Every structure is written in C-alpha cells, then in structure tokens.
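To the structural biology subgroup,

Please find below the input and predicted structure for Integrase catalytic domain-containing protein, which we are adding to the shared reference set this quarter. The sequence is reproduced verbatim from the submission form. If anyone notices a discrepancy with their own records, reply to this email rather than editing the shared folder directly, so we keep one authoritative version.
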Amino acid sequence: MTKRKVIENENFGSAIDISSWPNVLVDNLSEEDQKTYYNRRKAVEMYFQIKTHEQIMKATGIHRNIVTKLVKRCLETDSENIVWGFRALIPRKRINSYKRETLPESRPSNPNPNKNGAFMLLLETYSDLKDEIHTLFFKQKNRSASDPVIKTKYIHKQFIQKCRDLGLKAPNDYPFNTSEMGRRSLYNYIKKLEAQYMNEASERYGKEASQLIRSTGAGDNYRHIVRPYEQVQFDGHKIDLAITLVLYTPEGDEILTVIDRIWLLAIIDVGTRAVLGYHVSYNKEYTSNDVLHCIRNAIVPWKPKKLTIPGLTYPEKGGFPSGIIQEVAWALWDEILYDQAQANLSNIVKDRLKQVVKCRVNPGKVSCPIRRSHIERLFGLFEENGFHRLPNTTGSHPKDPRRNEPEKKAIKFKITAQHLEELIDVLIADYNATPHEGVNYATPLDAMKQRLQRFTVNQMPEEQRNEVVFLSLKASRQIKGDVRIGRRPYIQYENVRYTNELLAKSPGLIGKKVDLMVNVDDLRVLRAYLPDGAELGKLKAMGKWGLTPHTLQVRQEIFKLKRLKLLHFTSSDDPIKVYQRFLEEGAKTKKRNASKAYEMERNQVRNKDSDVSPTPPDQVIEKLESTEEKKENTKTFEPKPSTRNLRKTMIY
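Predicted structure (tokenized):
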C-alpha cells in the first residue's frame, strides 16, 4: 500500500515516530475506557505500520475516516509544543479549547445564550482588555505606586470598568449578561496566566518565592562532588548577636560601646562538608579585604586560639583541615562559588583568586542562596546551635522571643569581640568533628582523610608560601621628580608620596612607569618593580604616613573626611592617630564609628610585626643630601661626562 496521505502531505517531522510519543497510565481509566483506548491505539499503530484500511477495520472495527481523524489528533501539539501522542486517544479528552465566532448577546428571544468560549473571544476582540488584565496581574512598571500586589477581586473591578470604557453595556452585552459578570472566567484565566508565566507570577508572593522559582527546577542538576577541594562555597552571614567593644583613647580613657552589625564569612568544601576557614568582620558591610582574609585563613594552616572563656575547650578530634591533615596544609581549591555581592566582585578579589589560588570562579545571583545551599545550611546551624542560645542574641527578627535586651546583656556579661571569635573557632572545630548526613554520617574531617587516600589536592609550592601576599593589589604609577628644583624621584599612591634610598638617587628614572604590589592591609610600604621586572625595592610612605599600619580603605576614608573638612591634620601629625581619635569620639554615639575603630585596632595588631624599614624616607633623603654635599665640598674639578656615558650609570 502507498504511504499514507496524512503523513506525506503534512510536515510533522519527528512527530511521526510513535516510539517517542507520550504514553498513558491506563490503570486510571475505567474498564470501558481502557477497551476504547486500546482499540484506538491499535488502529493508530496499524496505520503507521502501513496496514490497509480493510485490515484495520477488521482488527478494530474503526472506519478509515475515524482512523485518519485519530492520527491527526495524535499529531497535534499541546501548549508546551509537545506532541499529544497516545494521550489524544483517551476517551473524552479535549486537546483544543473551544472557539466560538460571535460573542453571546442576550435577546428577548434568547435571554440566556450559550457562553462557552465567550471570555477568550472577548479578549481576542478587545486586545486592550487583555493588556489591562496582564498589566494589573503582573504589576508592570508603568503602573502607579499603590497596591504592589493587586488582589484578584480588584482586578475584576478594573476589568468591568474597562469593559464599560470599551462600550460594552448591561444587560445584554457579555460579560454583563452573566450572573457574576465574568468573574469566574476571569479567575480561571488568571490561574492559566500564573501557570504559563510562573517566574513573573511568583513575584506576587514575595522575594523568597520568586528566588526559589527562578533558581530551582530548571536545567541540569549540579554535578555530584566527591573529591576534596574540587569545589568550595563562600558566603557572608550577619550574626544575630550584640557584643561589647572596649576602645581606649590616647589618654588611656576607656570607651565602652555595643555593636550588633557582625559578619561571619566562611568557606566550606562541598565534597566533604568541612569548613576550611572563616573571618569575622565588624564593618557595616563586609569588604573585599574581609573576603581576602577569609580566603587566606582557608589556605594558611590553622592554629588553635588561646582560649580565655572559662570552660570553653576544643573537641578532642576537632579543628580545621589545614591544621590537622598534613596533605591539605596550604591546599588550593579548583572552583569557588559565591554570589555577586559588591565585595566579592571587586578587582582585587578576582585577581587574587586567579593569581594566588588559580581557581575557577563561579558567581551566582545576589541574595540567591539555593546554589550555595551547603554554606547557607551551615550558617543556620551555627545560629540555632550557638548564637541564638546566648543571652546577647538579637534573634532572627525584632519580635523573636529570644531577643531580650541583648545590648544590656552584652554589657552586663562583658561579651567582647575576642570572646565571640573564640566561640566561633570552637564551634567550627566542633562542627568539623561531628557526624554529617551529607557524607554518610562520617565527620567532615574523617571524610576528607578517607577520600585523600583516593584523591590528591593541589598545594601551594613551598617556595611561594613565604612570599605570597593574599591582600596585594597590582597598580602602575609614574615616577615623579624634578632635578631642576631639587625634588628627588618619588611615586604617589593614594595621595601619599613613596620613595627609598635607591629611587631617591636615581634621577634617570623620572618619567618612567613602575609596577607596584600594594598590600591593601598595610599601606606603609609598597613593592616597586621596573618595566623589565627587576625589583626596585620597598618604597615607604613619606612623613607620618609611614608610621602606623593602616588599610587602603582607611586612607581613602581619611582623605574623604579631609575634603569634607571634617578631619584636620598637619604634616607633624600622624593622620592615622588623628582619624582614630575622630572615630573614638564618635563611638560614644555611633555604632559604626566604634566598628571602624575596632577594625583599625585589629589591623594594627595584625601588622605590628610587618617588615618595615625603620628609617623614614624623609631621613633617607636628608642623609643623601648631606652625604652628597660633603662629597661636593671635597672633590676636585673633573670634566663633565658626556650624556652617553651618564646614561650607562643610571638605573632603568
């Protein structure tokens, strides 16, 4: 028999492959419907097997015209553009919505006309009406500021008013000739809108629902991570605590203040669920410096803290992988997941991840914790099992019953930042030694030890460990100076001049560009490199800027306050000390100033042992000028060397 006309005359493509058609669970059908379904299916299958109509009729009793209709029905596509297939053979199954040609109109001869399909025809006839419903339901941007989420009953009111504006009149025109004026049809249409545009509709139910809808259920599942350090997750979490900060003025006076803006930053290994490192920040929002400190703490081998809280001890087998497992000391991960928060996306963070850790960066959406479920679950665990059990907890929300005058409790029990950091260190050490369901109820540390017998991880080469600077930023500056006015060579970085003895006596370098490695955690000293890569040495900040450790953020804040005429200092003042005094005076009334002052103190303690030349560059220049003056007075007259010979003696 020749090929069927339905198949050869229509372009159905892969739809004619009945082996890929959606199937039917016949157990849900009645016995009679099952017989009808199987009979129809047999007829369709024989049709595609190129059986004759007589054979199909004899086997199923279905006429050729009906068979052709059934085949065409199976080849239709649904709203998702999926072929109906065998689903179209279910008895009484409607695959196309009813379409009418005219709107129902009430007349004396027919006061109650059939209204099937009337609502959809109404929207097709009056496109403005359809646009009005969509605009109200999805609350598009061109709407007013009122009613951020419009209830369905109010959409119906607007719908009726729009019908009147379009010239539809009661009582004869649809929808005015229905008992509920099209309310039920409108509600059903809105339900279909919600199903069809799920992402947009989810915004009506809040930010959390919208994030969940957009982040889950679509695309491939994430790969199963087993190997340690194959993938890590990073995030920051605001701790629900208030703590006491004790600050001291230069005169030795004590300033006691309370802050409740504390951030815990952590990095967790996905394969073993082990926490690799953390950092606590007291800034209003955690910064790129805080992110880099967290990365550093996850790589540099961990050492237990000296605990001062009575009764607080580390668990016997607890700790951090880098300090307990030799194979992962200075270990580097392959991939890191974090959200697109401003601090995470800063150039210095991306540069250090690329240059030091040498890992792939997989950024996700801001405030979208689904992709980083392990780190988010970790923060929730610490809150419920740790921070929320303390008397100074602020609770998870203002009406949390656990919130009981946390600021007064913080002062009463003298709960300080040091106590908090000790508690966090012990909590994480205990977590790493606690059985975890995600690794078959082994502890994260045990899981890592077992898997390291099968896998290896990348470790930072030993020769790089002493030189690596996690908080360094690469910059480029031009060497300035002018021999004609007696100004020795220097470079300027963030409004401060830098030089050293070698640069100060190399006028041939004036106008040349040098590369700088800037330790953003301590701006007293920069490392300078010539264009060919040769090191020019350490350049120290001139004046009082080279005395007290300070971060890039602190220096920028100082000059910002100076421009606003809120901070004043002279060349004889240490600007860092002036700024600290400014913060300490404001700490009595502003928590943010207290946080900044404490962060400065932490930074100064952290960098007090930094390798900084004890001779300030100002004294270096004075010494050079004095030495050269003596040479000038004692030397005999010599012919001036040619320019060509002079160039050979200069450093480039």
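Summary notes: The two ends are 91 Å apart (CA to CA). The chain has 24 helices and 16 strands.

Regards,
Lab coordination
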